[in-house]
Specification:
Elements (H helix, E strand, L loop, with lengths): L1 H4 L17 H22 L1 H22 L1 H7 L1 H6 L1 H4 L10 H18 L11 H21 L14 H7 L38 H21 L11 H28 L5 H24 L20 H21 L20
Helix pairs in contact: 2-3, 2-8, 3-4, 3-12, 7-10, 10-11, 10-12, 12-13
Length: about 350
C-alpha cells in the first residue's frame, strides 16, 4: 500500500506534491478543490458554505484526528497551501530554533482558545467572516512556508489545529506514507509526524512547550464543555457579548486545567500516557456528547449547530444513546486499547547533510 501511495514522485514537485500522478497527490488535489469550493461558497452562498463547513466538515474533524491523524496531515488543504513555497523551491528553508518553535506552539494553543469562542458571535452565522478567517490562516501559513523549512513554519508549530492533533492522535492504528516530505531534514524536533504515539508531553523541551502541553491537555475538556453552554449571538460584538462568549469556555478550561495539574503531582511519570489519554478522551467525548444532539435537532439552543432536524422522527434518547456510544468508543481507543507504537506517517529517508 505504501509503495503505491508513494509512487510517481517527481524531483521538481508540483502544485500538489509529491508526484502529480500519485494517489496521495490526487487526494490532496481533490480535498484542496473541495476546500476552495467551500471557501467560495462562504462568500457567494453563505448559508450553504456555513452549513457545509461548520455543521458537516468540522463535526467530522475530531474523530478524524483520533482515528486517522496521518490521513489528515497528508491531505489537509491548508498544509498543501502552506507547503507550496517549499515545493516550488522559493522557500528560504531556514531552520527553526527549538525556542522559537516552542513559542509558536504556545501561540497556536492561545489562538485556538481565542478563535473558537468567536464562533458564537461572528463565525457561525457569517460566511464572509469565516472566509476571511480561513484567508488569514492560509496566508500566514504560506508566509511562514516562505521562510522556514517544510512543516516547521506552520503544520508543526503555528497551526491552531496542531495542538489538538497531538492530543487526540496519541494512539494511531496505522502509519501512512508521508505525502509531503520526500526527505527528512529534521525541521521539527521531535517530529510529530514520525514519532510513535506522539503526545503533547513529548515535545516539552522548553517552558513554552511545557505550558502549551499543559494548556491543551488539561484545559481542552473544560473549554469544550464551557463552549457548548453558550448560545450563538450573531451580529453582536459589544463588551458584554465578548464576555459572555469567553466566560464559560475559559472558566471550564481553568477548572479542568487545575484538576490536570493536581493529578500530575500525584500520578507517577510512568502513567503520564494514561493521564493524557483520560483528558484526550474526555475532550473528544465531551465534544460529541453535545455536538451529536445539536446536529440532529436536540441541542439546548434551537437552531445552533443544526444539520438536519430529526426531532419529530426519532426519540430524543436515541441521540443521547449515540453520543454515549461515541464516549465509550473514544475512551477505549485512547485509554484502554494497547499503545500501537506507530507514528502518524512513515519517516522518509534522511537528507544528506550537504543538502540540509
Amino acid at each position: 500500500m505504501d509503495k503505491a501511495l508513494t509512487s510517481s514522485r517527481t524531483k521538481k514537485g508540483g502544485i500538489f506534491p509529491p508526484g502529480l500522478f500519485s494517489i496521495w497527490a490526487m487526494l490532496q488535489a481533490v480535498v484542496w478543490l473541495i476546500g476552495l469550493s467551500i471557501f467560495a461558497s462562504l462568500i457567494f452562498i453563505p448559508s450553504t458554505g456555513l452549513l457545509v463547513f461548520w455543521n458537516m466538515l468540522i463535526p467530522v474533524a475530531p474523530a478524524l484526528l483520533v482515528l486517522g491523524t496521518g490521513i489528515w496531515r497528508n491531505i489537509c488543504p491548508l498544509a498543501t497551501t502552506t507547503l507550496l513555497p517549499r515545493h516550488w523551491h522559493v522557500s528560504r528553508r531556514k531552520k527553526m530554533s527549538v525556542a522559537l518553535q516552542g513559542r509558536l506552539q504556545l501561540a497556536a494553543v492561545l489562538a485556538l482558545f481565542g478563535i473558537v469562542p468567536l464562533r458564537h458571535i461572528l463565525f457561525n452565522r457569517s460566511g464572509p467572516s469565516t472566509a476571511l478567517l480561513l484567508s488569514v490562516l492560509a496566508s500566514t501559513g504560506f508566509v511562514m512556508g516562505i521562510f522556514f523549512d517544510w512543516k516547521s513554519g506552520w503544520c508543526s508549530s503555528l497551526c491552531p489545529v496542531h495542538p489538538v492533533e497531538k492530543l487526540y492522535g496519541g494512539n494511531p492504528v496505522y502509519s501512512f506514507a508521508n505525502a509531503h516530505c520526500t526527505q527528512c531534514v529534521n525541521c521539527s524536533i521531535p517530529c510529530p509526524d514520525s514519532t510513535p504515539n506522539f503526545r503533547p508531553a513529548m515535545a516539552a523541551r522548553n517552558y513554552s512547550q511545557r505550558l502549551a502541553g499543559w494548556l491543551i491537555t488539561g484545559g481542552l475538556p473544560g473549554f469544550i464543555w464551557g463552549w457548548f453552554h453558550v448560545s450563538d449571538q450573531p451580529g453582536r460584538s459589544g463588551r458584554a457579548d465578548l464576555l459572555q462568549a469567553y466566560a464559560m469556555p475559559l472558566a471550564g478550561l481553568l477548572v479542568t486545567l487545575c484538576l490536570y495539574m493536581l493529578l500530575k503531582t500525584v500520578v507517577h511519570k510512568t502513567h503520564e500516557r494514561q493521564l493524557s489519554g483520560i483528558f484526550a478522551a474526555s475532550g473528544v467525548s465531551c465534544y460529541y456528547w453535545y455536538r451529536i444532539p445539536a446536529l440532529l435537532g436536540f441541542g439546548p439552543y434551537s437552531g445552533d449547530g443544526l444539520l438536519i432536524s430529526l426531532r419529530d422522527v426519532i426519540p430524543s434518547w436515541s441521540a443521547t444513546a449515540l453520543a454515549l456510544c461515541t464516549t465509550l468508543f473514544f475512551f477505549w481507543w485512547l485509554l484502554v486499547r494497547k499503545p500501537s507504537q506507530k507514528s502518524w506517517v512513515i519517516r522518509p529517508p534522511y537528507a544528506p547533510r550537504t543538502t540540509q
